[in-house]
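Justification of resources, computational component.

The compute hours requested in this renewal are based largely on the per-chain cost of generating structure records like the one below. Each record pairs the submitted sequence with a full structure-token output. That output is archived, and it is also reused by downstream analysis tasks.
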Amino acid sequence: MKYARYIIIIVLSCVLLWGVVWAKGKAGAQVCTEVSIVVENYDSSTFVNAEGIMRYLDQCHLRLKGTPIGEINLKQVEQALAKSPYLESGECVRCDGGVLLVKVRQLVPVMRVIDGDRMYYVNREGKQMPASTSFSSDVPIVKGHFNATYPPTRLLPMINYVKGDSVLNALVAMFEYRDSNNIYMVPNIAGHVVNMGDAMGFENKFRKLLLFYQKVMPEKGWNTYDTISVKWRHQVVGNLRNKKVVVHEVDTVEEDNESTRPDVITATTPDGLNYEGLT
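The structure output for this chain reads:
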């Protein structure tokens, strides 16, 4: 009796296992009859759609409809979706009835880069998406030529800082990257640009700039300078329109990673201009 019970259990287990294998085999042999595409971060600025994604998969030679669903390489499809410049990620799930569910996240731009005749959007990971007339995103604009050594995302902490401050957000029109030590801010105030130096210590640099705007510019005039530099520690350097460079001492918190000028009252720059210390 005891052994008969064990035999029954073993037989039932084998039948159950066979049923699972048979069901999987049947499901795997079922043809994919529908591809359901869902854009997870769909909103008013959505620029991808199901038709476009299907065309892209076709271009990648990934034929889904009509293929036995068990033969579809889900990882390969997901990798192809992740390579699209318009998507951040993609996920594929086999569903009942021969349906393949494809969930994608469209790229979320954090800045628009203007590099000569080329324009592109960048997301927070640095992925690039070509800009087009069919889509526009209200994100900060950065002008300049970047590379793998210095990608545009190096400016993202400063850009996010500006976006999080209502005064600075209203002040800044765009940024211009010339090299890693000369990043310019173009304000909405016409007539001058601001040399931020490198992308470090920007909190203190903006404090110096706002203090300069409050104390110096109303007295000197808003059209006095063509370039204002806040890259120097404790100082704001103004380029007069006659190319004379004037230094204003500003009492702000010192940042160790800001550039340090020579400890002399007057120093000659490589282009022959003089920095005149005002004491």
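The two ends are 107 Å apart (CA to CA). The CA atoms of residues 192 and 226 lie 4 Å apart.
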